[in-house]
Amino acid sequence: MTVVHRIVSFGFNLIQRHFNVGHPTEQFFLLRCLDVVSPAMLLQRPRSNLEVALKTLCLSVMVAHAIALAYDFSQQTDVRLAMDMLSMLSLFVSIILRSTCMRQYLAHINALDRLEKRPTFRVGTPYADESRRNVALQNSRYLGVALVMHSLTVTMYVIQNMVREHSFVKIITSFPVDLSERAPVLERAADLCYSLVGYVWGWYHGATQLTIIVLLRYAITEFRVFLHSLDSLDDQLRQRREQSQGAPDEERILRELLYEHARYHSQLVVVVTHLRTLLRNYSLVHFSFYMIIVATFMTRISIIPGRSAFGLAIPLMATSIYFLETFGMCMLVEMLVQLNRKVSTSLYEFSWPQYLRYGRTIKRPMMLMMMQANMTKDFSAGGMTTVSAELFAKTCRMIYTMMMFMANMANVESQP
């Protein structure tokens, strides 16, 4: 473990020296490290012309990879073999489309990145600092595990493609030309290149879905800090009265305290608006392809398990990654909506009746925060449904229906 820790530390120090990814206690630290190797380029930072050129080249190769698979898919008449290709093609196309959706809203991602770099609310207080630091460490831990799962899946994918002749996930491509008979060595080299591109696909996928999860966790953390501050309003008011010199002006202290919370709550509402805009089209694309990918992978496993353990492990790990990421996104969105609605309850528990003599000093900010909290809207998925735990359960039932349909279709096709 010491050797691994030294290697990881050396890698982080190298990236920090050349790309300024921030401190490990920042919530976006690992995302900035991932942005260095991912061709998605979702975070705003200075980039050299060489970096942009290399990542553009990677994107071009990935698009050619998807086109090659689409070409092979269009030439197939065997249902089961076509299902192999549909599984991988849907995976590749989903990664490209999700990143394309996110690139339409780079301004929202950059706005959230700037807010995370410069927190303004309760900086220096034990609860707020500890909460932000713990979430940053948890993000690094969770994202690190996710990236390890991506790397293991891609490594098995490369081995399976290069070792097995009739691999479940092998790219049986003859695009743009078939070199298997005229130049088998070049054909083998092309297979290796197509397989190694899987690492770029893994980083590309991670840069999109993990960015969404980190942004949601950032918003949830800030809401928890805000709610904790609301729950301790009486203690804060008493503490400020004790710290004031001379006779304390209770109305002024109360007004400043409530206005401070009202301003930050409005900032949190803006954060939620950024996330809602970002997720509107992204979530629709994600759930559409999530159902196709999981249904085709699991159907393929059920009708032709195959002889290779690698061939079985790859689709299981791929579906597990999609399942966990989708479940996490739904639960985080649900939690964020509930925390926003909880603001009105926490604010009402404040001992406001004894301050009613101050009139509008207390009424205006409290009414504003309670109205904003009570008018919280759900996150829309393309205007067709809402992102929630209920949607995740519905997609699981839909996936089962799709699996049964495709399995029956494949069995009918294979019968003489």
Automatic annotation (TrEMBL):
Keywords for the protein's UniProt record, in alphabetical order: Cell membrane, Membrane, Olfaction, Receptor, Sensory transduction, Transducer, Transmembrane, Transmembrane helix
GO biological process: signal transduction
InterPro entries xrefs: 7tm6_olfct_rcpt
Localization in the cell: Cell membrane
Example GO molecular function: odorant binding
Membrane topology term: Multi-pass membrane protein
Protein name (record): Odorant receptor
Classification lineage: Eukaryota, Metazoa, Ecdysozoa, Arthropoda, Hexapoda
